[in-house]
């Protein structure tokens, strides 16, 4: 899995779009569900640009009104760690 910052609005750090290469709906839906459970996440969604491409674009938008603003890149890290913890419990 390769993670690249696809685009980010330079005026604000409350939203960003990430491009994951060699991934599909499996990772996209998993990350979206985990992100939406976090306080401060206003929107999380993903798209697959084309069915023949193994790539997803994940967009995260935070409320920006919290004392500790959830910066989108740290949200991705947290979601990935949560996904790994769930996977470890499933394997046992």
TrEMBL record:
GO BP field: transcription by RNA polymerase III; transcription elongation by RNA polymerase I
Keyword Electron transport belongs to the record: no
Any one of the GO CC terms: RNA polymerase I complex
Keywords annotated in UniProt: DNA-directed RNA polymerase, Transcription
Gene Ontology molecular function terms on file: DNA-directed RNA polymerase activity; protein dimerization activity
Chain ranges of the DNA-directed RNA polymerase RBP11-like dimerisation domain: 16-66
Similarity comment: family membership: Belongs to the archaeal Rpo11/eukaryotic RPB11/RPC19 RNA polymerase subunit family.
UniProt protein name: RNA polymerases L / 13 to 16 kDa subunit
Organism: Plasmodium yoelii yoelii
């Amino acid at each position: 899995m390769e993670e690249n910052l696809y685009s980010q609005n330079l005026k604000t750090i409350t939203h960003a779009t990430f491009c994951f290469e060699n991934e599909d709906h499996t990772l996209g839906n998993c990350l979206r569900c985990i992100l939406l459970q976090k306080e401060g996440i206003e929107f999380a969604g993903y798209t697959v640009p084309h069915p023949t491409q193994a790539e997803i674009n994940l967009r995260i938008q935070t409320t920006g009104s919290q004392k500790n603003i959830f910066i989108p890149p740290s949200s991705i890290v947290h979601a990935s760690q949560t996904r790994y913890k769930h996977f470890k419990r499933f394997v046992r």
